[in-house]
Structures are given as structure tokens and as C-alpha cells.
Amino acid sequence: MFKDIAFFTLAEPGAMGVGNLMEFITAEGEKFSLFFSEEMPYSKVKEYFPALDDCYWNGPESDESCRTEFVFYLSKDERNFKHTKPPKNYTHLYEGFGNHICIRKDYYPVVEPIIRDLIEKNELVNWYKRTEKIINAIKNLTAEKKKENIKCD
Q: Which superkingdom does the taxonomy of this entry point to (predicted)?
């Protein structure tokens, strides 16, 4: 199930929309989602999807700007000061209000224009509108890689 993930979203606990949700698209265009819960804690998801091992999710990355929100650190607990750290082989886009998009770097060139277009049309938050276009772009690039005999990560 977690093999060859090309794209995923993550909503932090308490995120705007549906918190504790992860949505995935594989290189073959299959999509699935899960909720963090007592039955499926984040630690278990990391076992299935090791790319998350050293990740941390807390608002934007240290070098990302986010005009849509203020991040307040209400306690002196140093964990509150950690910035988001996405998987190494993924490009991170912060949607704001605790919502993250991660695109595997080899798929970023075909997915980024779709994301940019959806932002301009103010349709990025509609998962159903973006999914079809993103899946098609990912499947097409995967097919091209297979034709050229290039290994998919």
C-alpha cells in the first residue's frame, strides 16, 4: 500500500478541515487515505512509510512564508519551536492552517504547475478537483519512466 508514494497530504491534529488525515497517491495513480487514531497512530504509519521517520509537522518550514496565519508558541516547551521537516526526497508545500502537501521530487515538475493553477483559481482546497489532474500527471510520468527504463524511486 505504501510502496512508491509520489504525493501525499498531511493534516496536523487540529488542522483546518479534517485534522489527523493523510491522503496518498502512488506512482501508479492509486489513491488511499487514513486517519491517525488509537488504532492507527502516527508511529505505526511511519513503520509502513519509512520516509516519514525523521519528519516533524508544525506549521510552515523555517524557510517558508505563510501569509494566511500566525503561529503562536504558547509555552516554553522546546518542541513548540520545531519547524516542519518533510521527507528528504519530497518537496513540501504548506497550505496553511496545519495542512501540508508533499510531492516526491521526481514528480514535482509535473505536479507543481497543476498546484499553481489550482491556487490561482482558489480551488486547491478541493481534493476532488485536484486529485484527477494530479493522478493523471503522475501516471503519465510513471509511464514515460517505464518506457525509458528509468527506475521509479
A: Bacteria
What phi-psi label fits residue 18: left (phi over 0), alpha (psi between -120 and 50 degrees) or beta? beta
What single letter denotes the amino acid at residue 132? E
Domain residue extents for the chain: 5-147
- Cα→Cα distances 56→99, 110, 127, 142, Å: 13, 26, 23, 28
* pLDDT, tens digit (0-9, with 9 covering 90-100), for 12-46: 888 888 888 999 999 999 999 999 899 999 899 99
pTM attached to this predicted model: 0.82
Residue 93: enclosing H or E segment and its boundaries? strand 90-96
* Residue whose C-alpha is closest to residue 34's, from 50, 23, 18: 23
* Beta partners for residue 104, in sequence order: 90
Q: Could you give the 3-state DSSP secondary structure of residue 27?
A: coil
- Which residues, 6 or more positions from 63, have their beta carbon under 8 angstroms from its beta carbon? none
